[in-house]
Amino acid sequence: MNVARIACFATCACLLSVAAVAQGVTLPAAERIELDNGVVIVLLEKRDVPLIGLEAVIHGGAVSDPDGRAGMASLLAGLLEKGAGERSAAEFAEAVDSVGGVLSATAGLESITLSGEFLARDEDLMIELLVDMLRSPALSDAEITKLRDRRIDFLRAAKDGDPRHLSPIYGAAFLFAEHPYGTPVNGAEESLARISPADVRGYYRDYFGANRLIVSIAGDIDASTTLEKLTAAFSDWGPATAPFPVVDTPVPVIGRRVLLVDKPGATQSYFWIGNVGVSKHYASRAELDIANTLFGGRFTSMLMDEMRTKAGLTYGAGSSLRRPSKAGSVAIISSTKTETTLEAIDLALELLTKLRDEGVADDMIVSGKNYILGQFPPRFETAEQLATEFAILEAYGLDASYIDDYGDAVASAAGESIRSVINDVYPEPDNLVFAIIGDADQIREQLAKYGPITEMPITDPHFHP
User: Does position 19 have pLDDT exceeding 60, yes or no?
Assistant: First the structure.
């Protein structure tokens, strides 16, 4: 097996002034091991407290959902802790809870992730449970059907009640269309209803395997001993049989188009306005983070200040950056009373124009830097956090410099470079995709000024129009 080293640095304390934080935060030593079958293991000894953090990643996620069965990866992730190995769902939960551990699985756009934290004394149990989840999940008919039906009911309840969290799902579906990034991670009523227990088990057989697995463990461990345990557990695991999903770089939308999701009787309109953005590998990440923090990434942002504090049009407004392995999305997200829908959207567009035309003031840049550099160091304090960060770096093919150089990059970012990034990433107001949930009879005619409208009822059991 091939053993590589991730650079060793001293971890810096949290510093609050830009000048002081220029040193940044750097990662401690970790060891990267690749088994002959493709399993990647990252180990970090951190013995200050008797805890172990775990992050295991299976490449795939929603982008590998079969056609017409969106939500498959997410459904499988939810089932991994519903019985595995010789344990039933109840027995598995009891095994974790009885030692005060935490272990869960979730799916994202491009991966399924297992996260956990255990006392150091329970390392063997943690590895046993991890291996059972990955290599021998129960996937019983009863548990599959129960979880699938519960998720369908949850989506229907969200559409019937407060749909504020659905506008980004409609927005991504409308923006990316048939591209895999338009897949709703948790599925839709229609796609989930198509998934049978046999489908789930078939997906597991095809998409789980050694060549897709990253295991990152940090904490009070002896790295050589932990490596022996993981090697014994995974070295004989075969590869996934399905080809790795190939995702093309999405193309930004030119012009404007509007998706109106009709929710009759709604007293609020929920809107998402955006376009294709950038990837996890975007070179000017520090400048982009500063711009997004000031535009809509914190409570005292431009969007919140103008739309909530001054205009009183909303309780909340923000900007979203979704940065997967290829170009994701950049968007403005908010909600407002039905009767102020046009006013709120117009103001959001004015602020986008102002951001692109004027950039951000120097004093705000200093504030944004201090905010980011105050929030950044606490992300690397615990063993669980470090295990997560090393897994993310490995999953995206990034090295330690992605973390180590970030503080200096933020501290040295200048107004002109930030303005250049703003105009590079944030879409021109004439090139936008709108997804709006609201009472169509009350807002349809007004929305026509933004572009051609595609309309669908919120009761449709899917998110793609």
Answer: no
What's the pTM value of the predicted model, to 2 decimals?
0.93
> How many other CB atoms are there within 10 angstroms of residue 37's CB atom?
16
Say what the pLDDT of residue 4 is.
43
CA dihedral 445→447→186→266, nearest 10 degrees, is -50
Provide the CA 416 distance to its chain's centre, in angstroms: 29
Total structural domains in the chain? Answer: 2
C-alpha radius of gyration, the chain, whole number: 23
- Angstrom distance (rounded) from CA 183 to CA 292: 25
Q: Contact at 8 Å (CB) between 383 and 219?
A: yes
Last residue of a domain, one of 204, 234, 264: 234
Is the same domain home to 222 and 77? Answer: yes
Task: Indicate if 268 and 225 belong to the same structural domain.
Answer: no
Q: Are residues 74 and 177 in the same domain?
A: yes
Return the DSSP state at 117: E
In this structure, are strands 256-262 and 111-119 parallel, antiparallel, or unpaired? unpaired
Q: Collapsing DSSP states into helix, strand and coil, what is residue 213?
A: strand
Answer yes or no: do 60 and 17 share one domain. Answer: yes
5 backbone dihedrals φ, ψ, rounded to 5°: -110, 140
User: Count of alpha carbons within 13 Å of 349, Cβ hemisphere only?
Assistant: 18
Domain range for 27 is 2-166+173-234
Q: Which amino acid is at 1?
A: M
- Which amino acid appears at position 309 of this protein? T
Amino acid letter, residue 423: N
Q: Are residues 200 and 271 in the same domain?
A: no
Are residues 217 and 260 located together in one domain of the fold?
no
CATH classification of the domain holding 125: 3.30.830.10
Label residue 212 exposed, middle or buried (CB < 10 Å: 0-12, 13-18, 19+). Answer: buried
Closest Cα partner for 170 from 67, 260, 254?
Answer: 260
pLDDT digits (tens, 9 = 90+) for 129-148: 999 999 999 999 999 999 99
Residue 156 sits in the same domain as residue 186: yes
